[in-house]
Write a structure and sequence with these properties.
This protein has 183 residues and is an alpha+beta fold. 34% of the residues lie in helices and 10% in strands. The structure holds zinc ion (ZN). Zinc ion is lined by residues 13, 15-16, 42, 44-45, 107.
Length: 183
C-alpha cells in the first residue's frame, strides 16, 4: 500500500486540474437557441481547487462498529469518502457484492489511495480482499479465479449480500414489486 508519507497534504482536483473553475463551451441549436461559452465554479471541488489528504484513521473510526456483526456500521455513511470506503470494504470482503459497483469519488485525487485502503481493510477484517472481483471476474473471463476458501458471495450461485442491514437497490425494488402485487 502507498505509504502515507508519500502522499502530499493537498492535491489538485482531478476535474478542473486545480483551476477551481470549469468552462462550458458555447451551444447553438437550429431553433435559434444560443448559449455563449461560460465559466462557473468547478462543481466537483466547489471551487476549492484542491483536496486535502484524507484522515484515514478518522474515516475508519467513523465506519467501524464493534456492535455490528460485520464490523462496519450498518448504514451507508453520508460523508463521500467514508461511504466510498464502507462500500468497497463490503465489496472486497464479500459482505455485499451487488453490482453495479461504480462508486466513484469524482474529482477526488486521493481516490486510488482510498481504494487501496479499502482492500487492505477488507483483508484485515475478513481475511479476503477480492471477493467481489472473483465473483464477477469468473462470469466475465475464461480464466477461472480460485474460489476455494472464499465466502459464499464469491461463488457463482451464491448470495450477493450476506446481511440485510443496508438494503440494496435491487432488494428495495423487489420489496416495491411485492407491494404492488399485494395491493
Ligand atoms: Zn475542481
Amino acid at each position: 500500500m502507498t505509504a502515507k508519507t508519500e502522499l502530499p497534504d493537498t492535491m489538485p482536483c482531478k476535474r478542473c486540474e486545480g483551476a477551481g473553475t470549469q468552462t462550458l463551451s458555447n451551444f447553438g441549436a437550429p431553433e435559434g437557441v444560443y448559449r455563449p461559452a461560460r465559466t462557473r465554479l468547478c462543481v466537483w471541488c466547489n471551487g476549492a481547487k484542491t483536496f486535502a489528504r484524507p484522515d484515514i484513521k478518522a474515516l475508519l473510526q467513523s465506519i467501524l462498529s464493534k456492535r455490528s456483526s460485520t464490523g462496519l456500521v450498518s448504514k451507508r455513511p453520508k460523508d463521500d469518502r467514508a461511504a466510498y470506503l464502507w462500500r468497497w470494504i463490503r465489496f472486497h470482503g464479500g459482505q455485499d457484492v451487488t453490482l453495479p459497483m461504480t462508486f466513484d469519488l469524482y474529482g477526488d485525487p486521493y481516490e486510488d489511495y482510498l481504494g487501496e485502503v479499502a482492500q487492505y481493510a477488507a483483508r484485515r477484517m475478513y481475511g479476503h480482499r477480492s471477493v467481489g472481483v472473483t465473483r464477477w471476474g469468473n462470469l466475465l473471463t475464461n480464466t477461472p479465479l480460485p474460489t476455494a476458501g472464499l465466502p459464499a458471495t464469491a461463488q457463482s450461485c451464491g448470495p450477493v449480500v450476506t446481511d440485510d442491514h443496508d438494503k440494496t437497490t435491487m432488494a428495495m425494488l423487489e420489496d416495491e414489486r411485492a407491494g404492488y402485487a399485494e395491493g
